[in-house]
Design brief:
By secondary structure, the protein is mainly β. The chain has four domains: 113 residues, no CATH class; 70 residues; 70 residues; 33 residues, no CATH class. The chain is built from no helices and 26 strands. It has a three-stranded mixed β-sheet with strand order 1-6-4, with no helix packed on it. A three-stranded antiparallel β-sheet has the order 2-3-5, with no helix packed on it. Pfam families: Flg_new_2. It comes from marine sediment metagenome. InterPro entries: Bacterial_rp_domain. This is Bacterial repeat domain-containing protein.
């Protein structure tokens, strides 16, 4: 007899090459579980790359997705960083953004360091030095601020995003900052001392003077007194005299009593006795004069 052997070939359709079967591992490293829907159900994975400092959240938060699934991607920048844009299989800068899973996807989230401005305002006369001196600063940069008042001015205080009156002072850049340095004109005192009898007139006559003010000093001696000279922060004997206020000043006006001479003339024969008998006399002195005629017939 003749034996007939039948070979039956059972053909199984090949899985489309663009899919990963439910027995593959995802690119993230998590196994894809077997589906109850059949051995040929395919899944896709998203490979997330980060440039800069931050993270990306996925919703739904799976490592694998069935075809047609829409996935929401949310970029979460670290402190001091901002989301810039997406690249690879996602473009633009919307956050969150959406991607439809019709194949394996690679998405890169680009984060950039925040750049902050430091605006310096001046109230009064002076300047502020920044160290480091930059147009913008990254998050967390500490900037030293040194106030340099003009001559005759002083730093009073800081305001806006900086307070107090320390100089230098420091500010940490964690946002755009504005700092105002307040300078005030120095106020100087002019102390007048009197030696003797008299007074001094100040023009202008003020309690304090700003830097650079010129003050005219006029000495007014009492009756019978005269200005001798100035001392301390003013010298000489000019009257009036001028002093420029660039610091606290002290001026002493020295007055001396006027000295008068008493001249006695004799007509005839005799003498005059002065009491007191002095070469000079101060103002207001009373002198007794006694005429003493000669004894030989003079009266």
């Amino acid at each position: 007899g003749i034996t007939i052997i039948l070979i039956i070939a059972i053909l199984i359709p090949a899985v489309n090459s663009q899919y990963k079967t439910n027995y593959n591992e995802s690119s993230i490293g998590s196994p894809i579980p077997k589906s109850s829907e059949g051995p040929n159900l395919c899944h896709y994975v998203i490979d997330i790359n980060i440039v800069g400092e931050g993270s990306v959240s996925l919703d739904p938060p799976n490592n694998w997705y069935t075809p047609g699934t829409e996935v929401e991607l949310t970029a979460n920048p670290d402190s001091g960083w901002s989301f810039s844009h997406w690249s690879d299989d996602l473009t633009g800068s919307n956050n969150p953004e959406y991607i439809t899973m019709d194949s394996d996807k690679t998405v890169t989230a680009h984060f950039t360091e925040d750049q902050y401005t430091l605006t310096i305002n001046i109230d009064g006369n002076g300047a502020v030095i920044k160290d480091p001196d930059q147009t913008t600063y990254t998050h967390g940069t500490v900037v030293e601020l040194t106030a340099n008042p003009d001559s005759g001015w002083s730093l009073s205080h800081w305001s806006d995003d900086l307070t107090g009156s320390n100089n230098p002072e420091y500010i940490t850049m964690d946002s755009d900052k504005t700092v105002t340095a307040h300078f005030t004109e120095d106020q100087y005192t002019l102390t007048i001392n009197i030696d003797g009898n008299g007074a001094v007139i100040k023009d202008p006559d003020q309690t304090t003077y700003t830097h650079g003010t010129v003050v005219e000093l006029t000495a007014n001696p009492d009756s019978g007194w005269s200005l001798s000279h100035w001392s301390d922060d003013l010298t000489g004997s000019n009257n009036p005299e001028y002093i420029t206020m660039d610091s606290d000043k002290t001026v002493t006006a020295h007055f001396t009593e006027d000295q008068y001479t008493l001249t006695i003339n004799i007509d005839g024969n005799g003498a005059v006795i002065k009491d007191p008998d002095q070469t000079t006399y101060t103002h207001g002195t009373v002198v007794e004069l006694t005429a003493v005629p000669d004894s030989r017939g003079w009266i």
